[in-house]
Amino acid sequence: MQKIEPRIKQYEDMGLGLFIHWGLYSQLGVGEWTEFIHERPQAEYEQAIHTFTAADFNPKQIVHEAKKMGAKYIVLTTKHHEGFFLYDTHGLSDFDVMHSPAGRDLIKEFVDACNNEGIKPFFYMATYDWHNPLYKTDFNAYLEYLRKSVELLCTNYGTIGGLWFDGNWNKKDADWHLDELYGTIRRYQPDAMIINNTGLKNMGKVINPEIDAVTYERHTPDAVNHGDASKYVAGEISLTLNQHWGYAANDLSYKSPREIIENVAHSRKIGANILVNIGLTGTGAIPEMSRTYMHLLGRWTNMAAPAIYGVRPAAVVAAGNTKDFAVTNHLNTYLFIHDLQVVGNDNVVLGGEGINLRSFTGMFGKIKSINWLDNNAPVCFMQDTKKGALTIDATGFTYGTDWVVRVARITMSD
């Protein structure tokens, strides 16, 4: 039997998080990898520190918007691969926000805002670093620099939700001194989640016994690696709204709201958390498109909330070629129903008219009633408790609505 640490259970209960990418690159508005991909000379690129004002960074507003979106935690980039710190490094580096016109510790402001709204603050930390020459010339010395930068995050901001590392994939065969790095976190933040993004080629891989969640960057797996017999680990999907993590003004290739909602729903199906990412503008504001997507997602998460938070995949399986699935908590089971259409009439036929049967197996308990979460309307059903078979009439959406994925609550008989 795998042991589930309390911090991992609490993390899984949160389910949905907001990922925020912000740094010097945001001022250029062409993505977070612009220094590397566009081959910008380092000395020229790093002059962007002198125009970094954070004039529109309003952490209270950002956290409030995240909460309305349904996020229970936020992962913010404290340092991306460009090497610029959004916090006061207390002399560890002069390439930090205190040496910019902003002149204030933005991570402290972020943490304070999170604490005020009951949101868990998580810190992204890039391990792959383009700024510090030690990364190439004296890797052991660089690792001590990295450890000290993490120690500052663990000691100066109160209790945090976790650390989210990214970049070990750049030196996949190197000794990253993870025992020392993770030991520092455990010393100061014993209840913090430790997550290390394994990259596109090693998704779902546990790289160290202290890892608490495996990652699936830009990928929606059909199952999560929950570790071996010694320790249960969580899983996490991360999702961009368009093609970039950082702000890219001319990237108009946004995913559809349907795709975003279906990905959030799929994360519930496989028992993984999901991070939905936005990039702040160069001055620290939420771009209007991102704000709109956050509002749209928030409408759905508010409706489906009982089936999103504190739930786990149920041993109830949809029959046939369908994306439908079920989740459960200690009170109820919830059915997620996909690809429904809107009910019209004789003049406007929209495809949702008539009977739409969806079947499931593994439902042995006697059901009292089933109701849609969006309008509490009853759902007709047939059940064979001996065979564990359940069939519902998944009625189409009422004209004027389309929730993309519809959710029904099953109430069991006493």
Q: Structural class given helices, strands, pairing?
A: alpha/beta
CATH homologous superfamily identity of the largest domain: Glycosidases
Measured as a percent range, the helix fraction is: 10-25%
Beta-strand percent range: 15-25%
Total number of beta strands: 17
CATH class of the largest domain: Alpha Beta
Helix-strand topology string: HEHHHEHEHHEHEEEHEHEEEEEEEEE
Low-confidence parts, pLDDT < 50 over ≥5 residues?
Answer: none
- The CATH architecture of the largest domain: Alpha-Beta Barrel
CATH topology name of the largest domain: TIM Barrel
Average pLDDT over all residues: 95
Number of individual domains = 2
The N- and C-terminal alpha carbons lie at a distance of 30 Å
Question: DSSP helix count?
Answer: 10
Q: How are strands sequenced across the largest beta sheet? A: 5-4-3-2-1-8-7-6
GO molecular function: alpha-L-fucosidase activity
GO biological process, one term: fucose metabolic process
Keywords: Glycosidase, Hydrolase, Signal
Protein name: alpha-L-fucosidase
